[in-house]
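Tokens in:
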């Protein structure tokens, strides 16, 4: 099976970047031309998907996705979407409309909210477990809106609709790809029940394989299968030594960050961060390239686990995740551009995977 890559669609330059602060209020200098340029860069660099950003202060992800799709011909776009703020029937028709305009290139990435503060800024005061229960119900209605051939009624804990029906249907049948993430039991249940693709942050290979198995087993009990993916930072150097020197500098900078210092001793809300911090409490380097030191220093509010090394070492590490089942990778880098990642990492991983699959 081919390996595919996800990059980030940008909508502006971050001028006050608080990289290590959860529920971040990064000040983005919006640039109406940047979204199209960013999406085109991803497409030309060899990325298969562009992921829109969803924060409580960011530009509207649906409109950013529309602009990214308009500017590209091949790139698919994952619209980051938080259930609860738009009715599931409305969101379903929005996605179907995007899918029609783009010729079948719109997908949905469900975000149930890893921090309460990000939800509360938009008026959602449900706690995390309740948000996942709502998300399960949301996706059930969402899918029915796109697949039911006759008007339908639905009554649940969070949603009630009567005579619901969509005149517009997506190009992708029965509905566009839905992805999700998260490490909690509730996240595994949602992915196994509704997602077509599941992402987790990079963990040691043995731990990642066990977690992948949990998702696959849950889905299997429902007669479903779920594609698996890894979300990871990359720190590259011409040599392994140079890359590790860069990683140590990033960690040192993180330790001096005022927001990190202010949050010292607090426990993260999301299970993914808790897992990373637990793993890093005993050691920080795993396998051949995985480094959890930056995540440990920051408290791991975001995807801070990193693969560190030369192009050969990092591409080898990504291939090892491919061997345990990962077929899609969200790639970030503290230092490299998406153009550089495409020219180097993506090309090399595809070459090595092709050799494996011969």
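Residues out:
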């Amino acid at each position: 099976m081919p390996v595919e890559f996800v990059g980030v669609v940008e909508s502006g330059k971050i001028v006050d970047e608080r990289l290590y602060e959860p529920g971040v209020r990064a000040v983005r200098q919006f640039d109406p031309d940047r979204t199209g340029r960013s999406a085109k860069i991803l497409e030309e660099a060899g990325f298969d998907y562009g992921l829109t950003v969803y924060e409580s202060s960011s530009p509207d992800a649906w409109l950013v996705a529309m602009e990214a799709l308009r500017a590209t011909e091949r790139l698919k776009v994952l619209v980051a979407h938080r259930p609860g703020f738009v009715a599931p029937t409305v969101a379903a028709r929005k996605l179907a409309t995007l899918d029609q305009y783009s010729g079948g290139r719109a997908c949905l990435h469900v975000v149930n909210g890893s921090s309460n503060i990000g939800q509360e800024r938009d008026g959602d005061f449900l706690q995390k477990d309740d948000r996942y229960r709502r998300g399960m119900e949301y996706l059930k209605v969402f899918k029915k809106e796109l697949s039911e051939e006759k008007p339908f009624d639905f009554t649940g804990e969070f949603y009630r609709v009567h005579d619901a029906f969509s005149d517009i249907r997506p190009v992708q049948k029965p509905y566009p790809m839905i992805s999700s993430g998260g490490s909690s039991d509730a996240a595994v249940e949602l992915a196994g029940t509704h997602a077509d693709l599941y992402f987790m942050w990079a963990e040691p290979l043995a731990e990642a394989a066990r977690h992948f198995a949990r998702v696959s087993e849950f889905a299997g009990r429902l007669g479903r299968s779920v594609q698996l993916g890894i979300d990871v930072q990359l720190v590259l150097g011409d040599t392994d030594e140079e890359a590790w020197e860069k990683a140590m500098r990033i960690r040192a900078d993180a330790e001096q960050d005022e927001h990190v210092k202010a949050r010292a001793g607090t426990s993260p809300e999301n299970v993914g961060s808790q897992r990373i911090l637990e793993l890093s409490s005993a050691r920080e380097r795993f396998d051949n390239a995985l480094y959890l030191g930056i995540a440990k220093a920051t408290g791991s509010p975001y995807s801070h686990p990193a693969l560190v090394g030369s192009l050969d070492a990092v591409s080898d590490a990504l291939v090892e995740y491919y061997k345990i089942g990962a077929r899609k990778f969200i790639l970030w880098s503290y230092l490299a551009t998406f153009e550089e990642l495409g020219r180097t990492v993506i090309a090399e991983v595809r070459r090595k995977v092709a050799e494996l699959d011969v």
